[in-house]
Amino acid sequence: MTMTQNSQKAIAIQELAQAVDSIADADIVGLAGNILKARNVVCFGAGREGLMMRGFTMRLFHAGITANYIADMTCPALGQGDLLVVAIGPGTLRSVETYATIARDAGATIICITAQPEKVSSDLFDQVIEIKAQTMASDQALRPPSRWEALSRSLFWSWSISSRTGSVPVGTKTPSSCGDVTPTSSNPYPSQKS
Length: 194
Description:
- By secondary structure, the protein is α/β, with parallel strands linked by helices.
- The chain has a domain at 12-139: Rossmann fold.
- The protein is 44% helix and 12% strand.
- Strands 2-1-3-4-5 form a five-stranded parallel beta sheet, with helices on both faces.
- The radius of gyration is 23 Å and the shape is globular.
């Protein structure tokens, strides 16, 4: 490893240690207690938090706890005695809040893990755990978009507007300008007989 790689590795390890150390001991004890007394533990997060929550779900399962991830085929319906653990890095996200509302209505206990607790709808959760960490929202606030991000956004909005209005921005390729895309028969599956 080069000196630069070693220093980058050390910085990453330091950032992870700071994030873990930022969690209050009482929050860890509360989370562990809720997990151990729950009939089922169901986890969810979006984006990077979703990846983290999938890993957390797998670790719980390996520890012998009945744990599932929302939208997995084996995920049971939540009810009384169950626990929903969600991660919302930026503090608010409609999909996560929707699942929390459904779980609340079913009688489940709900725990939220976030980096921005001041933005969390605290009446929706039984416990809010703060992890002091940088989120994508704070990443966006610290720097202007790259040229690639700006281009991606402009292409998305061009497509989005054209798909709603039917008009296509000048210079944009459309299916009709890319050659004939008309099916050769009325059967969309030519290998199958009509």
